[in-house]
Amino acid sequence: MTKYLVYGAAIVLYVLHQDWWNWDDRRLVLGMPVGLTYHVGFCVVASVLMFCLVRFAWPAHLEVEAKDMHPEGADPWH
Amino acid sequence: MALTIILIYLAIAVFIGVFSTRFLRKTGSDFFVASRSMGPFVLLMSLFSTNMTAFAILGSSGETYKKGIGVFGLMASSSALIIPCVLFFVGTRLWSIGKKFGYVTQVRYFRDRWESNTLGTVIFVVLVFFSAPYILTGLLGGETIFAKLTGYPQEYKWVGSLVLCVVVCIYTFLGGMRGANWVQTFQAILLLTFGALGFVAITRELGGFGTIMEQIQASPRASHLLAREGEISTWKFLSYTLIPLSVGMFPHMFIHLLTAKKLTAFRYTFVFYPVCIATVWLPSVLLGLIAFHQNPNLKTAADVNGALVELYHNYAGTLLAGLFGAGVCAAIMGSLDSHILCLGSMFTQDVVVHYGMVDDRNEKAKVFIARLFVVGLLLAVFLVIRFVNARTIFSTGVWCFSAFSSLFPLLLAAVFWKRSTKVGAYLSALSVLFLVSFFYCLGDYGANDEYSITWSSLLDLGTQVRNLFNGIPNKSIAPTEGIMPVMVILPFSAVILVVGSLLSKPPSQATIERFFPGKRGDFIASPSKDGEVRQSASIPAKT
């Protein structure tokens, strides 16, 4: 369930990237243009989202499968 | 002074490449994927450095100089969300498939996935074709740095790209992917350090960051750059979010994914990547803004490319300007080495060995051919750059990214859609090749930085093509109108892939069961220790 909430948060974040409400705003916030401050904050939130994805939706089964199924001889470079 | 610092840096890069050969096991696996042994920190720095290029530093500041702070949202913050998500949802599955079946490149994977040799070769050609412009942006950046910082006359700026080519050649020649990864780690640290130092020095020289921002806000000449109104449309802004999808199809990213020791090595990359992107783009965008405030008279593409370098040259002092030059060279080389190693690896494994020109077990011959390819490719790109220097780094990079992101449906179909077929894949790859080339030509061969698509321009394609053949530049569309070509090409390539697949024969049951097992871990045709099953499961070459 938590996994799907994080997926939903990713979609919401994608929509929030558009920030049309800052389109013509030239104010300075935290010393920078508000549109720029917003998108720097967006990057930080994206980092938090990725943390949540890693924490709650990590595809651990992929590593188990690969470990079980990958003998050395399968590597074409060996 | 600046030249000396840059040369010292280049010598260090060569030294690291040479030093890493002490750890080189002289096998193809070590040369191309560092024996799949890269840990989390080096992987993060390597992926980061591979993405942070002349495009992110010189290109972004040049574009900010023209369009204002919206550039950060166009590429940086959209990449901060889209790139790690693509790596998380698709990259992890690719890592798993690569580990299971020993894949190094997309080409081999696509060949097996869609049971077609020729399709793999077509995709190889398409990937090489689309990689070339990105390498070009790097060399363009190298020339800008050398010309602006060293005071060479413009006619000698080719020395900059030549020196970069030689240095990259030496350290990848000797160290392969292990050397490239080590140098990239060093490069990423340099870039972050000098980006911050230069930013502080310039803003101090100009009276402090807060003061400059207030001056720009009060300036009727520059204040329009503080917002997106009048500079870019909301639809174009939205269409830019499709461009970071390119990360999924970049050949060098695929190889980097394979260099991870474990899947868990990606965790740091996913979490810190958005912040790393902001760290590099933010100073570049702010300095682009300041560059316009200080000198709004730069007009030509070469001048806009060098707006940031000029700012350093005028306000940061010789030492920091030299260190900054070294940092940008670092970023450029971090991109170049990955590209050329990857293309060398694909050429060797997917063309030369696949078609039986060299024995697969002959490790020395494989590495030698890859090195020859690296030299040949760099030489070719170096010669091509003489004809494209009228383009901005940003727009050239965007064309390249648009091409790779338009190929993204191909990757999604391979990984997630059982019913996709080679016919659909052919149609998709070839449609992207045609449409990107077509729109690129309509945009005056990349010289029209504002090229975008509107309904009326789509209805008027005939006139535009006639203009193209008659050498008449097409009418420019206002920056606040239209969408990026990727928003047309990507859906088209997806639809044609679906239609082509549904109208053609599906892949064999054995292939479907191999790549889409019924339950987790239940793979048939799993490779044996001597690799025999893997080879029999792979598509044999028609030699």
List the helices and strands and how they pair.
The complex is a heterodimer of chains A (78) and B (543).
Chain A: H1 2-16, E1 28-29, E2 32-33, H2 34-56, H3 60-69
Antiparallel strand pairs in A: 1-2
Helix pairs in contact in A: 1-2
Chain B: H1 2-20, H2 28-33, H3 40-51, H4 54-67, H5 70-101, H6 106-113, H7 117-150, H8 158-205, H9 209-218, H10 234-240, H11 251-258, H12 266-294, H13 301-305, H14 307-315, H15 318-353, H16 363-384, H17 393-406, H18 408-416, H19 422-442, H20 455-459, H21 461-469, H22 486-502, H23 509-515, H24 532-537
Helix pairs in contact in B: 1-8, 1-15, 3-8, 3-11, 3-12, 3-15, 4-5, 4-7, 4-12, 4-17, 5-12, 6-7, 7-8, 7-15, 7-17, 7-19, 8-12, 8-15, 8-16, 11-15, 12-14, 15-16, 17-19, 17-22, 18-22, 19-22
Q: Kindly state the mean pLDDT of chain A as a whole number?
A: 85
Distance between the termini of chain A: 42 Å
- What is the alpha-carbon Rg of chain B in Å? 23 Å
How much helicity do the residues of chain B have? over 70%
Order of helices and strands of chain B: HHHHHHHHHHHHHHHHHHHHHHHH
Biggest pleated sheet of chain A? 2 strands, antiparallel
| Biggest sheet statistics of chain B | none
Q: Give the radius of gyration of chain A.
A: 20 Å
Number of strands of chain A: 2
- The share of residues in extended strands of chain B comes to under 5%
List the uncertain runs of chain B: 520-540
* Pair with the biggest interface: A-B, 51 and 72 residues
In CATH terms, the superfamily of chain B is Sodium/glucose cotransporter
